[in-house]
């Protein structure tokens, strides 16, 4: 038997092999995303220890919660078939963001508590409207397109976080606020879900994660370039989100 290029191409084209690669990429994406989900834990330990939210903002967690809910909805069979690993990663992400927001509300002053509580309620109202419109007014194909474009828009909006960190690194010539392991996790997660979407031929998964992959590469290159100029140990970034 010829085990050259034709045999290799046949193995890649085999549905079972492709399914295995797709499943592996999705599982890897879930694992790397989990690293990003737990990255704010030191910040919230500090909030609980000091009994105050200090100058921290709840906005990243509010935005991330809405993003996770939209992407979770996209991955459910009501909207899309065969992308269950998108649902698992975003349901876990939503649970983390909701927990972080609840802790923030518990330790914020009265004015900030009222503001964040209102924003949290608004997130669930918006998500409820998305669910209602997609189920009550749209057929399945249109529903997938509608929710898919919303998920892409929300993910691209979330790229403001790595872009702001990239800008900060270039401006300060320091990777102080861009820890290597978080940048690496973001890159690996984006690559994993880019491959997952590519293997599924799902535009709404591979396009935003392709952008995330490019941003991850830029972060890693900047880290390599500015590492020696850093002023000290890496700290948690000012804003951390997931794709």
Q: Any idea how many domains? A: 1
What's the total count of β strands?
0
User: C-alpha Rg, in Å?
Assistant: 20 Å
Return the structural class.
Answer: mainly alpha
Return residue spans where pLDDT drops below 50 for at least 5 consecutive residues.
1-12, 232-243
Q: β content, as a range?
A: under 5%
| Cα separation of the termini | 43 Å
- Shape descriptor: globular
Helix content: over 70%
The succession of helices and strands, N to C, reads HHHHHHHHHH
Query: How many strands, what sense, and barrel or not for the largest sheet?
Result: none
- Mean pLDDT reading: 85
Number of H/I helices: 10
Question: What can you see in these coordinates?
Answer:
- It is a single chain.
- By secondary structure, the chain is an all-alpha fold.
- It has one domain.
- The chain has 10 helices and no strands.
- The chain has helices at residues 5-13, 15-38, 41-50, 59-75, 84-107, 110-136, 140-158, 160-172, 180-200, 203-226.
- The longest helix has 27 residues, at 110-136.
- It is globular.
- It starts with a helix and ends in a 17-residue tail after the last helix.
- The relative contact order is 0.14.
């Amino acid at each position: 038997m010829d085990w050259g290029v034709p045999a290799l191409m046949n193995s890649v084209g085999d549905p079972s092999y492709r399914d295995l690669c797709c499943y592996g990429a999705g599982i890897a994406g879930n694992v790397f995303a989990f690293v990003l989900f737990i990255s704010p834990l030191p910040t919230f330990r500090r909030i609980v220890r000091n009994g105050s939210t200090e100058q921290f903002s709840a906005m990243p967690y509010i935005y991330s919660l809405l993003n996770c809910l939209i992407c979770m909805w996209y991955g459910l069979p009501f909207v899309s078939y065969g992308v269950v690993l998108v649902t698992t990663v975003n349901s876990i992400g939503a649970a983390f963001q909701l927990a972080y927001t609840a802790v923030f509300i518990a330790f914020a002053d009265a004015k900030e508590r009222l503001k964040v509580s209102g924003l949290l309620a608004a997130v669930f109202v918006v998500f409820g409207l998305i669910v209602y419109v997609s189920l009550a007014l749209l057929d399945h194909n249109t529903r997938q397109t509608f929710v898919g474009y919303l998920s892409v828009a929300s993910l691209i909006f979330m790229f403001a976080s790595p872009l702001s960190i990239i800008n900060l690194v270039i401006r300060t010539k320091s990777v102080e606020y861009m820890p290597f392991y978080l940048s690496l996790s973001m890159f690996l997660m984006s690559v994993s879900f880019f491959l997952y979407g590519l293997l599924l031929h799902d535009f709404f998964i591979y396009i935003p994660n392709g952008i995330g992959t490019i941003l991850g590469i830029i972060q890693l290159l900047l880290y390599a370039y500015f590492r020696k100029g850093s002023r000290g140990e890496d700290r948690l970034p000012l804003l951390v989100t997931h794709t």
